[in-house]
Amino acid sequence: MRLAVITSNPGKVEEYRAALSVLGIEMEHRRFPYMEPQVDDLNEVVRHGLEELRSQGLQDFIIDDSGLFVESLKGFPGVYSAYALKTLGNNGLLRLLDGQEQRRAEFQCCIGCSRDGMPDIVVRGSCQGVILTKEQGEGGFGFDPIFSPDGERSFAQMGTEEKNAMSHRGRAVQALAEALRESMEG
Ligand code: IMP
Fold first, then answer.
1. Is the whole model's pTM more than 0.70, yes or no?
2. Which residues, in sequence order, are CB contacts of 185 under 8 Å at separation 6+?
3. Is 148 a pocket residue for ligand 1 (Cβ < 6 Å)?
4. Which position among 65, 98, 144, 150 bears the catalytic label?
5. How many domains does the chain have?
6. CATH of the domain at 16
């Protein structure tokens, strides 16, 4: 089986390859912009994306949508994470939490997979942690320097493998691998 990963972020494709190649699934990176509706649920964004891309003739593909949900900001930036990162950046988000002791946050990732003639698979993964008080580390991307699962080391201070073992996307990819394995065996 061959699946296209539709994303502008090549880092995501490597995570998929690592988890899905053991099932004999080949991954191919494709960029194909699609509209993301402004709704407050990642599943809805993904289900809408699957429909839209199918209506444009795409088959056998994966998309994903992630967000960082900060508890004391009532879940912001959540589904607006890409926009918040572009406009506020990590330092802007840190300023919103200035003086705030309760810094719990959750990363969420929702993956949708469309295969010709098969029901859609939609799975999720999450990772609990905290927003640090300053950026830490040089690796990763996006919010990685300010998010830490244990309150000490940020995602940006971990190697890809270590991050994937506990990250929202790593967990969602594992759930996808499981669902694909079941559907291939069944
Ligand atoms: P996307 O819609 O899945 O691309 O993610 C929304 C925003 O969250 C983007 O600006 C990403 O950079 C950021 N983001 C998604 N996943 C991660 C992650 O694993 N670490 C840090 N930032 C992330």
1. yes
2. none
3. no
4. 65
5. 1
6. 3.90.950.10
